[in-house]
Specification:
The protein is globular, with a radius of gyration of 18 Å. Helix 2 packs across helix 5 and helix 3 crosses helix 7. Helix content is about 80%, strand content about 0%. By secondary structure, it is mainly α.
């Protein structure tokens, strides 16, 4: 029992450490859903599960030695939130609410994958070191914590202290957050020096 609780605690720690920034993304998506109806709340939840599931599945496959992820080229995924943010900034809107930066389940999943591409670097050695039973505990904890993350973000996205400022400045704030997330992914991944060397 102690071993099970220890494994669950370790899984929770790994998940929280690698997905803190997802709270911001999810909250922004829930605020946009509240203001524009897009993406729908179930798109956000299902897209988060799909995105995290893809990251974990890739990590497990890499940990098993069946696939090699070209690092740091995964940092190019940062271009996705940048493109979404720029598109939303350029879009004309008739109201003052936050723009629908992401409008579909697959869009949410794509942003989740892009924002969590660096998680693979943490998950691979973790899953490589786990016994199958412990790995199953990790997966179950991850499934539960995705629901917790979505619930917390939905609460924040419905709180007036969050909704009010985002409603006032949402036409530029929400896209700017996505651009900032994408830029952070590009810079922190180390892909920019690789690109510069390749092009130079």
């Amino acid at each position: 029992m102690t071993g099970l609780l220890g494994s669950a605690g370790g899984a929770a720690l790994v998940f929280a450490a690698t997905n803190l920034d997802d709270i911001v993304v999810l909250t922004v998506l829930f605020v946009a859903a509240r203001g524009t109806g897009r993406p729908r709340p179930w798109h956000i939840v299902a897209g988060q599960y799909l995105g995290i599931g893809a990251l974990v599945a890739t990590s497990v496959v890499v940990a098993a030695g069946l696939l090699v992820v070209p690092d740091p080229w995964t940092g190019l995924l940062g271009l996705l939130p940048i493109a979404l943010g720029v598109r939303a900034l350029l879009a004309r809107r008739d109201d003052d609410g936050p723009p629908a930066v992401v409008g579909s389940l697959l869009g949410v999943a794509g942003v989740t994958i892009a924002n969590g591409a660096d998680n693979i670097a943490v998950y691979v050695p973790v899953f490589r070191s786990l016994r199958p039973a412990t790995g199953l505990v990790f997966l179950l904890v991850f499934v539960a914590l995705v629901a917790v993350w979505c619930a917390v973000a939905a609460l924040l996205g419905g709180h007036r202290r969050v909704v009010r400022p985002v409603g006032r400045a949402g036409h530029w704030l929400v896209p700017a957050i996505f651009v900032a997330i994408g830029a952070t992914i590009l810079v922190s991944s180390g892909v920019l020096p690789r690109l510069a060397a390749l092009l130079g």
